[in-house]
Structures are given as structure tokens and as C-alpha cells.
Amino acid sequence: MQLASQATGKERREGLAERIYAQLKQDIFEFRLLPGDRFSEGEIATRMNASRTPVRQALFRLEQENYLEVHFRAGWQVRPFDFTYFEDLYDVRIVLEQTAVKRLCESIAPGQQEALQELLAIWSIEPDQRCYDAHQLIQMDEHFHQKLLTLAGNAQMTRIHEEIGDKIRVIRRLDFTQPSRIDTTYAEHTQILYATLHRRSEEAQRLLKAHIEVSKAEVRKITLHMVHSARN
Fold first, then answer.
1. pTM of the predicted structure, to 2 decimals
2. Where do the domains of the chain lie, and which CATH numbers do they carry?
């Protein structure tokens, strides 16, 4: 009975730590916690009505994911935006995704062609059929780009691409807060898929690079605007 009670208590703490982690991460994503903001474990514990143990677990997890910094004797801080860091990650994305479409253009097996056609059916649709929900779109967009890597068949490239996606999600999702950017994404994804399906390798790579470059520039502009607005 004692062991069962201990196990239940541990599961409860782990569940609470998960909830605190998710809430703080959402606060960072929604700019309720701004880059550079400082706070203590005690403040979070009071706000979440929790003990410091699950709070500390959640905070260290967010630190490992590069959302927070810990300053011993000075509390915690939301990591300031380092646009050079994010833009470097976007540049790696470009290399990985260009390599993926190049490999696909060189040899498209029937199964790969079918999967690309399925992607085309999602993105090549009329404006009145498009999704304009930002939360759903970030998942759809990540699936599109990740699928290109998966179809290319290099497991290590796919893994690295997934890790980059996790790191840039905090700003990448902002690209879908404006209807014009959503419409552009649908059009550009369609163009990339057509070029790939027709094995126009150089065109597909050029379109893909331009697509990611524009997204990189837009999220930087939107991030700066949203942080400025939140502070004022």
C-alpha cells in the first residue's frame, strides 16, 4: 500500500509539472511572458498553486528547450530573442529541404508520388476552402515541410529537421497570424509540389528557398511588432 501511495504521489507531481510546463510555454508563445522578463520559482508556485518541486521541474525543462535562462541567486528569465540564432536555424532548414526535394526529383517512386499528390490535394484548393485557423495551420505547415524530409528517405536529416522545427516554433507560428501570409503559403506550397512532381529540381529548390526566406523575414518583423505592442 505504501509503495502504491508513493507511486500515485509521484505520478501526481509529474502530471502537475507537465501542466505547469505547458502553461508557461503557452505564456511565452502568447507573449504574456515577454523576452527578458524575470521571475522567481516562488512567484510561479504561487500563481500555479503548486509546490516548488513541480515548478522547478517545469522550469528546467523549458531551460533545456532554450525558452528560459536560470540565473542562480537571481531567479529565472525568459530568454531574449536572438534573431541570429533563429535565422541560422532557418538557413539549416533551407539546406535540408532543398536537399530533400533534389533527391525526390532525381527519383520519385510510386509511393512517394502518391504522398506528394496527397499533399497537393491539401494545399492546391480554392480560397474559400482554405483553413485560416493559425493553430491548425502551424501543424499543417510543419507536416508539409516534414513530409518532404520523410519522403526523401534520410532518417538523420529528418531527425535534425524535426529538432529545428521544435526550436523555431515559438516564432514560426506567427507567420500565420495574417490572412495574406496564409494565402501566400497555400500558393507557394502548391508551386513547390508541382515543380517536385514534374522533377524540375532547380525550380523546386529555388521556390523552396524563397518560401522559407520570406517566412523568416516576416516572422522577424511580426515578432518585433508583437513584443513592442505587448510592452506598450
1. 0.81
2. 2-78 (1.10.10.10), 83-231 (1.20.120.530)
